[in-house]
From TrEMBL:
The keyword Nucleotide-binding applies. The lineage of its organism: Bacteria, Bacillati, Actinomycetota, Actinomycetes, Streptosporangiales. Keywords: ATP-binding, Nucleotide-binding, Transport. InterPro entries: AAA+_ATPase (IPR003593), ABC_transporter-like_ATP-bd (IPR003439), ABC_Transporter_VariousFunc (IPR051782), P-loop_NTPase (IPR027417). This is ABC transporter ATP-binding protein. Signal peptide: none annotated. Residues 5-230 form the ABC transporter domain.
Length: 295
């Protein structure tokens, strides 16, 4: 499968502090990819390097087969919507569209104009006078009208109310369906990822803990609940992701491709949030190497 983003041993250092270190990642094309992890995992730093805004300190990264800051042709392939969906407060909506047209050779003026009309935004209004949801929609419009092959969105809806978040994500998914581009979306709001993403990456301490198509990840992860048991006694094909124990009961999340027949266990499926939390809560010192569902 063609990768839209590949990193090998990627790192970024600010002074003496590493914001991202030894990150290896493969993100396939043709998906809406959700990237989730705790604060400090390196998500924003990784995405800014992918967008050509930061240069690596160590390692390498390619996006759509090229170097992220490899020139105008490469930059034209990638759209980027940053945290807090920044726009220029003193410029009008129309000014933003003119700026986008001047900076992007593949600018789709008709798409931008139609989307602004559908959103009911007054082209004469200054961006600083718009609501948070309207500013987010304007930023998304600028990213979409660039007609990228890959759209990167870094926590674009974190500060929005639930209705504005839903409208933003709905607009994004409509655009994906119509124009068929790849998306990498980072978010702390797992519910948004559940509604939109078909591929998931959990990033913790700069390392990919698990990645794969959402349906396959959910089908191969299970919660086992039963009498207290040492996880080392589980069959070898049941990889332990996380575990909790009381004096009498064990609750263990496992990944396995095989059916679970042990009658001592109550087996239940996981939601995406359950899956994410299982990989995030495990102590870093005991986390396994990254797992990827085979396609």
């Amino acid at each position: 499968m063609t990768a839209v983003m590949q990193a090998r041993g990627l790192g970024k250092k600010y002074g003496k502090r590493w914001a991202l270190r030894d990150c290896t990642i493969d993100i396939p094309s043709g998906h809406v990819v959700g990237m989730v992890g705790p604060n400090g995992a390196g998500k924003t730093t990784l995405l800014k390097m992918a967008g050509g805004q930061l240069a690596p300190t160590s390692g390498s990264i390619t996006v759509l087969g090229g170097h992220p800051a490899g020139g105008p042709a490469q930059l034209a392939k990638v759209g980027f919507v940053a945290q807090d969906t920044p726009v220029y407060a003193g410029l009008s909506v129309a000014d933003h569209l003119r700026l986008g047209a001047g900076l992007n050779p593949g600018w789709d003026a008709a798409l931008a104009r139609e989307r602004i009309e559908e959103l009911g935004l007054d082209p004469a209004h200054r961006a600083g006078k718009l609501s948070g949801g309207q500013r987010a929609q304007l930023a998304l419009t600028l990213g979409l009208a660039k007609r990228p092959e890959l759209l990167i969105l870094d926590e674009p809806v974190a500060s929005l109310d639930p209705l504005a978040r839903r409208e933003f994500m709905q607009g994004l998914m409509e655009a994906v369906a119509e124009h068929e581009f790849s998306v990498v979306l980072s978010s702390h709001v797992v519910a948004d990822l559940e509604r939109t993403c078909d591929y998931l990456i959990v990033l913790v301490d700069s390392r990919v803990q698990v990645s794969g198509e959402v349906d396959k990840l959910l089908a191969t992860h299970h919660r086992l609940t039963g009498p207290r048991r040492d996880p080392d006694r589980l069959p070898g094909d049941q990889h332990v992701v996380s575990e909790r124990h009381t004096d009498r009961q064990s609750t263990i999340v496992v990944r396995t491709d095989s059916p679970i027949h042990d009658p001592a266990w109550t087996v239940s499926r996981l939601s995406m949030e359950d899956l994410v939390l299982a990989y995030m809560e495990k102590p870093a010192a005991t986390r396994p190497a990254a797992l990827e569902v085979q396609r």
